[in-house]
Amino acid sequence: MSGPRLAAADQGRRPVLVVDDDELFVAYTRALLEGAAYRTLTAATGEAALRIAREHAPLVVLLDIQLPELNGYEVCRILRDTLGRAVGIAFLSGTRTDPVDISSGLLVGADDYLVKSCDPSELVARVGALMRRLQAENGDEFASTRNLTSREAEILRLLSDGLNQKDIAQTLSISPKTVGIHIEHILGKLDVHSRAQAVAAAYRENLLNSSR
What we know:
Blueprint: E1 16-19, H1 23-35, E2 40-43, H2 46-56, E3 60-64, H3 72-83, E4 88-93, H4 99-108, E5 112-115, H5 120-137, H6 150-160, H7 165-172, H8 176-190, H9 195-204, H10 207-211
Parallel strand pairs: 1-2, 1-3, 3-4, 4-5
Helix pairs in contact: 2-3, 4-8, 6-8, 6-9, 7-8, 8-9
């Protein structure tokens, strides 16, 4: 792939950038997203992904971890340094699916972590949820408070609403295991030891009120 490929529809909207060197998977994912009326761009290497991101400012990046040249972790760090929280990043992996892999990806700065074998409707739904959240939260100071990612901020809100780990997973269309890893990160960033303490700290510091 020598450059970005754009869908015909929705040209005026910020695109989803799919970064993977597996051409079949890219074609499959691109077809899914375009079928859901998302504008898409593609890149096969980390260097190409960064160039396209600079030129087109995607709203969401679906990023494979194992890439030629720069790997996905390196690309994620650079995107965060250059675009900050204005871009949503979801890692894709067909092999790195253990809890430690998911945790590492989220700690690098990703908002979400998708397994390549996930259901097509789940992939589209999670891209849409991330895109809507970013559009709603641009300028929202909550996600940056205590260095919480936008996904962590959303999970903390849902915890404050009384949802348990399973309910949050169903609401966000992610696995309970992934929710649990996010909650561990929230506890660490708020310097507390339980979910109840996290919610109390959020209210005490007026985090939840400022985010609604």
